[in-house]
Amino acid sequence: MAKKQSAGHWINNQFVPGRSGDVIDVHNPATEEVLGSVPAGSEHDAGAAVAAAKAAFDGWRRTSANERADMLHEVAHKIRHHWESIVELLTLEQGKPVSENEEELEWVKTTFDYYAEMGRNLRGRVLPSAETSQLNMVIKEPYGVVACIIPWNYPLLLMGWKVAPALAAGNVIVIKPSEMTPLTTLYLAEHCWDHLPPGVVNVVTGYGNVGEALVTHPDVPVIAFTGSLATGQRISMQAAPFIKRLHLELGGKDAFIVGPDVDVQVSARAVAYSALLNCGQICTSTERVYVADGLVKPFTEALVEEVRALRIGPGIEPTTDIGPMIGEKYRAKFETHIEDARKRGANVLIGGRRPPNFDRGYFYEPTVLTNVDHEMLVMSEETFGPAIPLMPYKTFDEAIAFANGSQYGLGAVLRTNDPLLA
Fold first, then answer.
1. Closest CA to 315 of 97, 102, 152, 90
2. Which terminus of the chain has a smaller tally of CB atoms within 10 A, N or C?
3. How far apart are CA 254 and CA 411, in angstroms?
4. Mean pLDDT, all residues of the chain
5. d(C-alpha 329, C-alpha 259), whole Å
6. Are the CB atoms for 93 and 26 separated by under 8 Å?
7. 192 in active site
8. Which residues neighbour 232 within 8 Å (Cβ) at sequence distance 6 or greater?
């Protein structure tokens, strides 16, 4: 794909250059080649986007729910029309295989269709009153400008989950995409949101300073953020003086409990999928696996064979099962977790290295570890990469205690055929 040059931020339905003139190069994580560049935004750029959104708010909130629904359905229609271009660009800038990006885009399209109808039908209600002279009503009102700060691992889906419901409810939007994956968001702005009234959806690119400017802006009452625990904590502190509404989805260290009664082959495939989808770069990826004592040997052997069969390569190649990690900084952090586990006595059954047949790109072999404990980083902190640490348990109560012994939340999996356990 030819290098894509962005004309700037998307404000008031047009590209606007960044005030500083500085740019951020966006790289293909499989090749390290530059795909394009976007403005390195400033507080001024964020303020211009907020001002545009605020000016558009009154007209958008007064637009009927039916009209808003039709426009959101049109977003979904345009996504379908530009499907191949969006999938290709997303694959090149984010790295995961085409099949996974097609799945992501299908979710995005469905999200806009779904919330179009939610916004059309959920308008409020009338409640009975104990007093005959009173009428109680619940009226749903939009807040105003919603800042959506989006990560790089699912840049369209996590955008859609924030933007679609906010628009359906009558809010206006400023999106700050990750500096690592902004190109696809800007493509959607130009090709799939251009029919929305100017200022209703705006995109400002840049580093964390842009997100911080949105969080602390007095005209932004709602912040929707997906990212790390540390950044979420910082956003909470910055937003507190303004009493802002926050929607935060933060880090995870999800546990997968393998029950004593399961089919070993099927369960090994399930663990490999849930731990290695998007190269393990999902906040709800399986990051700890607890296996019933009696199944440890056959399950471990089955899991290693599942992992051994996976093909590593650029996401754009149809044979690829596992694409690259997003960037060198993230791969280096992942490697510190693997090395920490090794030094503390973990066994690496497969993987544990950069694949030797790639001289460029941020690839790492999917890695299965045993003899782990909860003192290791790979069992206690968010690893966010293609690692599967396995730990045995003796009783189900012990497995639950292991799973709950974490500062993180988000998700977990229990695989069993016993409904009393589930």
1. 97
2. C
3. 5
4. 96
5. 36
6. yes
7. no
8. 225, 248, 250
Q: What is the pLDDT of residue 4?
A: 56
For the cut 80, the answer to whether the pLDDT of residue 357 exceeds it is yes
Angle between helices 296-308 and 264-276 (to 10 degrees): 50
Instruction: State which amino acid sits at residue 315.
Output: G
Q: What is the DSSP letter of 137?
A: E
**pLDDT at residue number 130:** 80
What residues contact residue 356 under an 8 Å CB cut-off, 6+ apart? Answer: none
- Is 283 annotated as catalytic? yes
Predicted pLDDT at 2 = 44
Share of the chain above pLDDT 90, in %: 92
Q: For residue 127, give the H/E element and its range.
A: strand 124-127
Query: Mutual orientation of helices 65-81 and 157-168 as an angle, nearest 10°?
Result: 160
Residue 5 has pLDDT above 60, yes or no: no
> Cβ–Cβ contacts within 10 Å for residue 40, how many?
19
Which residue out of 100, 104, 283, 381 is catalytically annotated? 283
**CB neighbours (10 Å) of residue 294?**
12
Beta strands in 156-300 (DSSP E): 172-176, 201-203, 222-226, 245-249, 254-258, 286-292
Q: Is the dihedral of CA 29, 32, 34, 35 positive or negative?
A: negative
Instruction: State the Cα–Cα distance between residues 50 and 33, nearest whole angstrom.
Output: 33
Residue 334 phi, psi (nearest 5): -60, -45
Measured CA to CA, the distance from residue 143 to residue 140 in angstroms comes to 10
Residue 1 — very low, low, confident or very high, per pLDDT cuts 50/70/90?
very low
Helices and strands (H, E) in the chain, number of each type: 13, 18
